[in-house]
Each structure stands twice: as C-alpha cells, then as structure tokens.
Design goal:
Strand content: 5-15%
Order of helices and strands: EHEHEHHEHHEHHEHHEHH
CATH architecture of the largest domain: 3-Layer(aba) Sandwich
CATH class of the largest domain: Alpha Beta
Number of helices: 12
Strand order of the largest sheet: 2-1-3-4
Structural class: alpha/beta
Shape: globular
Number of strands: 7
Helix content: 40-55%
Radius of gyration: 19 Å
Largest sheet: 4 strands, parallel
CATH topology of the largest domain: Rossmann fold
Number of domains: 2
Distance between the termini: 32 Å
Length: 292
C-alpha cells in the first residue's frame, strides 16, 4: 500500500514525535509512505476568515496527489477534515467544483474528487487490520490502562464521513487491545482539548486542557493516547501550564498511538521520538520494562 503523506503544518514544525513514529511503524505494517512535493497548508485555520481560500488550498493539495497517482495519508484530524470537505464539495457541487478548477488551472492542475483519504486510526483499524497488528507485537507493555482522546475534528461532522464514530468511538480501544494495552471508558472521553480557541482565548483553552488531564489522572489511568498533533500540543507540551491553571499537579504520560504501537513492536523509545515528549512518559516506559 503506497500513500502520499500530507504532513500538515504542526507535525513537521513541532510535533516531530508523531512523524517519527509514523515513519517507523507504518512500513512494518506494509504501508509505504511517499513524500510528495509542492503541498500547501490545508487552509482549515483560515476557514472562519475566508472559506473559499480554505477550499482552494485543500483542493490544490488533493490535485497534487491526483497528479502523482496517490491516495493520501492525513495524520492530522484538522487537515483530514479540511480535505474531506473539499472532496465532498468537488463531488457534489458542480458550480463550486468548476470555480475551484478554474483556480487550479493556472498551475496546470485539476481535481475530480478521486483521492481517498486515510487517517492513522482508520488506516490501522480498517485497512491494515487488527490481526496484522497483533502479529507484529514483540514486547509485553504490561497492560497499561490508557485514556483514549479522539479530539473534535476526527469525529465530527458525521456527514463528511469521519474516520471514527461520533458518539461512541472504539477503534483506538481495539488497537490498544491488539498491542497488549487496555482502555476503560470515562465521562470526559469526547471533551475538547481546548486547542481550537488557543489563539484567541489562551486561558480558556489551557483550562479545558487541565480539566480533562485532571479527570484522567484522578481516575487512575496510566496515561493518555491520541493521534492528533494539535491535541498532543495541548496535553503534552502545555501540561505544566494546564496544571497551574486548574490548581493541580499533573503527571499524565501522553503519547501518540503510533509511539505506543512502536513500543509494542519492539522499537527503541528513541527511535519513536519519545525523548521529544514533554509529559512524564518515563512512567510508561518503566511499566513497559516491568511487563517485559
């Protein structure tokens, strides 16, 4: 399976652990990641200012994938949402598709809605399959109880065909079970990380972050697992500030799904970018050693 990588803006500029672990784990599962030149921002952060610009940027990148003859791996849920919306509009709204293609024609590009989009979670769960994941497990993780965090953009809106169920997402839980971890449901599971309001209301954003981390910690989870660079930025990089905001000492290990999968596959932590995580991931690594 060959997929062109749409890295987005955050993963290659600060959330390096996600990309590092993706590039280690997915090839072990039979996925060839192809780097595609000349992509641009998905445009989603600009949507409230200029929706046409967002659609043009998304459609342009999709047209580049089409030109290369590749479907797209889109690890960022925000980017995945933007590209999914562009796909729907090109397929269903003839006038808008014409306008977008007029803009693309200046670069010799065109788009017809034919590029399939994959997020990390549905790629692993739906297309690679849990049996193949189980076959790759080499290390006993010690059955850590991980709080799953899906984030907002990966579950809504349903009509765009999101990678997981909006009301009761369970795909990460099944992947965790396949690699020897577990996850109990908790009331705050679908709560927002606060990231979308960070540029305009930073205190509110970090308060949301702290409230969810505090709930995870108080309920005795061994850590939090996710697959979104924006959410990881909030829960991992801003955990200390979030704790100060809610008046709690937060010590929650936060890891990417692909980092935890990599540990189960026997990949050394340093090759998964875990040294770049700012939350206390050493707690999980210690549990991993105890399990082994």
């Amino acid at each position: 399976m060959r997929l062109g990588l749409f890295p987005g803006c955050l993963m290659p500029t600060e959330q390096y652990g996600y990309e590092i672990s993706l590039r280690k784990v997915l090839p072990m599962l039979g996925v060839e990641i192809v780097d595609v030149m000349d992509l641009s921002c998905c445009g989603e952060p600009l949507k409230s200012i200029n929706q046409m610009l967002t659609l043009t940027l998304s459609t342009r990148s999709l047209a580049v994938f089409k030109k290369e003859g590749l479907d797209a791996l889109v690890p960022c849920p925000m980017c995945h949402l933007a590209l999914s919306e562009a796909n729907r509009i090109v397929k269903e709204e003839e006038d808008m598709a014409r306008r977008l293609n007029e803009k693309l024609s200046a670069e010799g590009l065109d788009y017809d809605g034919s590029v399939a989009l994959y997020h990390t979670i549905d790629l692993v769960h739906d297309h690679i399959g849990l049996e193949k994941v189980k076959d790759m497990v080499k290390v006993d993780l010690g059955s850590p109880d991980m709080a799953t965090h899906y984030g907002c953009h990966i579950i809504r809106p349903t009509e765009l065909g999101r990678p997981v169920d909006a009301e009761n997402p369970q795909k990460m839980e099944r992947i965790l079970e396949a690699i020897g971890a577990r996850s109990n449901d908790y009331a705050e599971k679908l709560d927002c990380c606060g990231g979308p309001v960070l540029p305009v209301h930073p205190d509110t954003a970090v308060t949301k972050t702290g409230q969810k981390l505090q709930a995870v910690q108080e309920q005795g989870f061994d850590g939090m697992v996710l697959a979104c660079p924006w959410c990881h930025k909030m829960y991992d990089s801003k955990q200390k500030k979030a704790g100060e905001t809610v008046g709690a000492k937060l010590e929650v290990p936060v890891v990417y799904l692909t980092q935890l999968m990599g540990l189960a596959f026997g990949i050394p932590p340093g090759e998964l970018g875990l040294d770049l995580n700012q939350s206390p991931v050493e707690r999980l690594l210690q549990k991993d050693k105890e399990g082994a």
